[in-house]
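Hello,

Following up on my earlier ticket. Below are the two sequence lines again, exactly as submitted.
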Amino acid sequence: MKMKLATWATAAMMAASPVMADLVFPSLSYRTGPYAAGGIPFADGYADYFTMLNERDGGIGGVKVAVPECETGYNTEKGVECYESTKGAGALVYQPLSTGITYQLIPKATADDIPIHSMGYGRTSAANGAVFSHVFNYPANYWNGASGAINYLMSQGDIAGKKIALVYHNSAYGKEPIRTLETLAEKHGFELMLLAVDHPGQEQKSQWLQIRRERPDNVIMYGWGVMNQVAIQEAANIRFPMENFIGIWWSGSENDVLPAGDAANGYKALTFHGVGDDFPVFDDIKTHVVDKGLAAGSGDQIGTVLYNRGLYAAMLAAEAAKTAQGIHGTADITAAMMRDGMEALEMSEEKMAELGLPGFGPAFNVSCENHGGPGLVGMTQWDASAKEWTLISDFSPSDMEVIQPLIDEDSAAYAAETGITPACN
Amino acid sequence: MLYREAGDFSTTYPQDSQTFPIRFDRYRYYFVLAVAVLVLPFVMTDYLVNSIFLPFLIYAIAAIGLNILTGYCGQVSLGTGGFMAVGAYACYKLMTAFPDVNIFFHVILAGGITALVGTAFGLPSLRIKGFYLAVATLAAQFFLVWLFNKVSWFYNYSASGQINAPERSVFGIEVTGPNTEAWATYLFCLVFTVGAALIARNLTRGSVGRKWMAIRDMDIAAEIIGVNPLKAKLTAFAVSSFFVGISGALFFAVYLGAVEVGEVFGIQKSFLVLFMIIIGGLGSIFGAFAGAAFLVVLPVLLKVVGVDIFGFPTDIVAHFQLVIVGGLIIMFLILEPHGLAQLWRVAKEKLRLWPFPH
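Thanks for your patience. The regenerated structure is below:
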C-alpha cells in the first residue's frame, strides 16, 4: 500500500510539471531554516536578473529563461530531491548554494553531464578543471579568501609573531581554510588559533571567552547564517576591536551586522564583487522587474550584499550561456554545451561595463586548467551610522604559491579516490 | 469477505504459527513482495528512487531497529542519528581500506561494528530507565557526532571532513557512486530492508522478543520469572544498533554518496526516526514501514501539490509542511496513540467480523 501512495505521488508530479522548452536555470534556494537570512537575498538576486533578461532582452539569445525554484532548507537530503526533480526539466547549471549539497552533487552532476557553479563556496580544489570537469568555482574560492585576509593584514603591518584566531563553522565549509591558514602561518610566522562553532552557531560564549583570555591580534571568521550575528554580538560584548575582526564573504552581509547596531561599526569582510546598488544594471532591474511587480520574494533585498552576489551568479551564468550559444551556434543549448560555455567564459572590463556592471567584479578567463578564476579578493568595511558596506581595498591577488600546491594535492586525492584520470582536451 | 479465516484450516503447528496465518493476508504479502521485486525495478526512475524509495527503504530499516529497542524492549533512545553515523563511517573506512571486498559485506560489517558500539552505550540501561536513559543516549548522539568531526582518521584526513563513497559494485553492477542505475540501488536496499524485516519479525515472535517485551512491560516481574535483564537489554541494544548501523551505511554509501556528520546525522535524525515509530506504531514491524513511508512521502507529496500544482511560493510550502507534519503528529498522539499499525489492526478486526459485527 505504501507503494501505491508513492506511485500516486509521482503520477501527480508528472502530470504537474510543465513541458519546458526554455533555458532552465534551477535555483536551489533556502528561504527557510537557520540560514534563510542569507538564502533569501541570494535567491531574489538570482531570479531578478533572469527576469530582467526575459523582460528587457526576451531571454538569452532570443530564448526565454525559466528559473524553477526548489526549497532545500540547506538540507542535503532535500537538496538531492531538488536536484532529481529539476534535472529532468533540462537544467543547464546548478548553483547548490551549500557546501554539503555541492559535495553531494559533484559526482552526480558530472555523471549526468550537468555543470555546477559553486561561486565562492563548495569544494575549493574543484578549481582544477582537469579533475573536476563539471565543477566551476570562479571567480574566487575559500583558500583565496583565507590568503586574501592574511595579505590584507600584512598590508596593515608585520604579522610575524602575531596571534590570529579562526572562528569557523564546524562543517565542511568552515574547515576548508584551515590547511591554507596553517601553511600561511608557517610561511609568515604567525600563530594560528582554531575555534570551532557547531551548527547552527547560536552558542558561542565559550569560544569568545577563550578569545578574551588569549587576546589574539586578529580574528578571522568563516561563519554562515545566524552564527555571524551571534559572533559579532559576542565580539562586541567582549569589546574586541571590530577593525581587527575579518569575516569571509559569507559573513559579510547586512543581516550579520545590523543586529549588533553601532557596536558592529568597523567590522570587515572579504568580497569578490562590488557592493551597493550604484550600478546601471539596477536601473534596468527597477524598470523591468520591480516596477512591473515581478520582483522575487518581497522585493526588499535589492542592493544588499547577498542580493548582489545572487545577481552576479546569474550574470555569470547568463554570460556563460551566451558563450555556449556562440560556440555551438544554437540558441537552444544543452547542459553539456553550457559546460563548454562556462569553460570558455571570458569576463573583461568592457563586457561588464556593457552589462551595466562596470567594475563589479574582477576581469578573468576560465580555462580547463583553471576553473577557479583569478582569486582576486577585496575588503569591505561596515559603516554602522550610514548602514552601508564600503570597499576599502582593490581586488588584489592571493598567494597562489601556497594555494596551488594545496589544490593540486586535494584534487589528486579526489582523482585517486574516484579513479579519474586528470585530462584537459 | 476479504480478510477472514473461515475455511482456512491449519493442520500443522508451523502452519498455525506462521507470520501471516490468514490466507488472504499471506497472499497480500506475497503480492506486495512480488510487485516490489518484479515490477518496481522496471519502472524505477532517478527521481523516484532518490526522492522516495531509497529514503523509504533505508529509514524503514532504521525504524525497525529503533522499534526493537524502544517499541519491543521499552528502552527510549535518542541516539539513532549517532548510531547511523557509526554505520556510515564504519562502512566508509571499510570501503576505503578493503576495496576488493564486496560492498554487501561491508554494509553487514558496518552493522556489526555499530552493534558493538550500541551495546557499549547500552550498558547504562542496566542501571537507569526512562528519561535518564534517554539523556544517556542523547549523550551518545552528541559524543559520536563530535568524535567523527574531531578525529580526522575517520574521514581519511580529507581537508573538509566530508566522506565520499567510492564506486563499488555487486555482481558487476554498480550500487554506489555516481554512475549507478536507479533499479540497482533500489534492489540493493530492498534486499537489506526485506532481510531486516524478516529477521526482526521472527526475533520478536520468538523467545528473544518475548523476553524483550517482558522487560518492557515490567522489568522486575520479568526478572522474577527468569528473564535475565542484562542479556535481554543488551541483546535489544545490539540488534537494534545492528539494523540502525546498516541503515546508516546504506544512507551514506547508496543514498547520499557524500556525508558530513553534523548535518546528516545530527539530533534531527534521531527525532525523525523516533517520530516514524511513534506515528507508525510502537512495537510493530509494519508500523516501522508505515511510519517511514508516511514521513518520507508526505513532504514530497506536499511539495508536489503545493509548488508544482498550485504554484505557491516555495517558502510558504516549506513552512506549511512543518505545520502539517507537526499537526499530524499531535493528532496521532491524541486520536491514535498506537499509531498507523493500530489503525491497520483495527481495520483487520473489523474485516474479520464484517458484515456481522457483534
